[in-house]
Each structure stands twice: as structure tokens, then as C-alpha cells.
Write a structure and sequence with these properties.
Elements: E1 26-33, H1 42-58, H2 69-77, E2 81-87, H3 90-96, E3 101-104, E4 109-112, E5 116-117, H4 123-126, E6 150-153, H5 161-178, H6 181-189, E7 195-198, H7 201-208, E8 214-216, E9 228-233
Parallel strand pairs: 1-2, 6-7
Antiparallel strand pairs: 1-4, 1-5, 3-4, 6-9, 8-9
Amino acid sequence: MSHDVTPSTDSPFRSEPTARDQAPQFVLPLVVRMEKAAPPARTDALETAARAVLVLLGDERSVGDGEWAEVVRDWQDARIRKVVRRARGAEWRRAEALPGITVTGKAAEVRVFPPVPLDGWPKELAKLQVSGTDLDDPEPPAAADASAPVLWLSPDLDMSAGKAMAQAGHGAQLAWWELSAEERAAWRDAGFPLAVRTASPGRWAELTASGLPLVRDAGFTEIAPGSCTVVADHPALR
């Protein structure tokens, strides 16, 4: 289902003011490793960021009485913000020293941290740049495996890699919320396999009308409020 039309009509991403805006605001920090000599491929970085969000959500520290559980709940009760910053060399080593989880893709490395207050970033992360996460795919990505989850990006929007990484994370999170406990456990136990691909215009029209989880961006950066950015196509939700 689209998270712009949940039963409460209270989407964490929609542009209109809702009760979520009254809650204390938190952000989920993601840091992508961007060494000058060997930046990751764009699709690899997007897929690794999406998996990093899922790894944090499925971590025992994020649920129940876990050490991150309260802040994860507070974050999910407000706007679901994610910010991707980049680091290399000593910056990356300082980021790795903070509590969090590093997730590795084919070559990409993304570290996800427990949510922080919007104006309360750790100094080691606050210093990192948001801009400059422009990445390319050396070769077109292979066709997605239809038996695994696919996060489909809108063909109509031009997003930086950092913005697209955050949007892929949103899509993965919406899929996670829609799954049963058994389906979540199965996905986690398999290592959160997923693909991120840009849909063709015709396919995008079908996907946005399919009832699958749909991210409508709040429009804080780069794109207009209410823009449809990602459809989460998980086999269990079809």
C-alpha cells in the first residue's frame, strides 16, 4: 500500500503537516565511504545503503529493550529522515569508531548509525560533506531478479547518488513495515537480498498504481514535495 494513504493518512514522508511534525525530530545518519582512487559504483552504493537501513531495523539493539530501541522508536514516530554523508581516509576511520554498523556491498561500504536529533549530530559526522556523492555505474546494471525484492526508482527524477541512497533506504523501510514477523525474519536470515533499479516509464506507471509501498518525498532537498521516488516491490507484498 502507498504510505501516502495509510489508514491514519499519516505518512512519514508526505509533504502536508501532520502529527508527526509535532514529535521531536530525528535523522538516521548514513555515511558512504568515498576514497578518491576507488569510489563505489552508483547502484552498488544505493543497494548497500538500502540494506544498511534494514540491518539497523533488524538489529537486536533496535528493538525491545535494546540500547538503540528508544531512539529508533522516536525516529519512526516523527518524520523518517535519512541523510547520507561521505567520508574517506581519516574521516572514515573516525566514523567507524562511533557506534553503528558497517554494511558492505560488492565494493561499496556504508555505515549506518542509530538516529540522532536533527540538530544533535556527533561532531565526527557533522563535519562530513553531504554534497559530492555523485557516482556512476561503469556498466549498466544487470536485469533485476524478479524473485527477490526490487526497489524501483522513478525514471522522471534526477537525484544525486546521496539523495537516491536515502530514497532507496525509505523504500526498504516501507517494505519492512509491511511484512509479517516471519517474512521479516526470512529476509534478514537471507542477508536482505535486494536490487535497486530505475523503472522504465511504462513500468513506473504500473508500479505506482499497483498498491505496493510507495515513497512520496517530503521535499526537504533536491526534489519537489510529494514527488513519488521509489516503489518497493517485495515478492511477499505482490
